[in-house]
Amino acid sequence: MTSKIAWVLVMFLVSACTPAEPTGNKLNGPFERPQSGYDFLTPETQALQDDTFSNPGYLWVDRGAALFETGGADAPSCASCHASGLMGVAASYPAIDTETGQLLNLEGRINTCRERHQNLPALDHESDDLLALTVYVANQSRGVPLSVDTGGAAAAHYANGRDYFFTRRGQFNLSCHQCHDQNAGMRLRGDTISQGHGNGFPAYRLEWQTLGSLQRRIRDCDTGVRAEPLSLGSQTYIDLELYLNARANGLDIESPAIRR
Question: Which is nearest to 127 in space by CA: 45, 251, 232?
Answer without folding.
Answer: 232
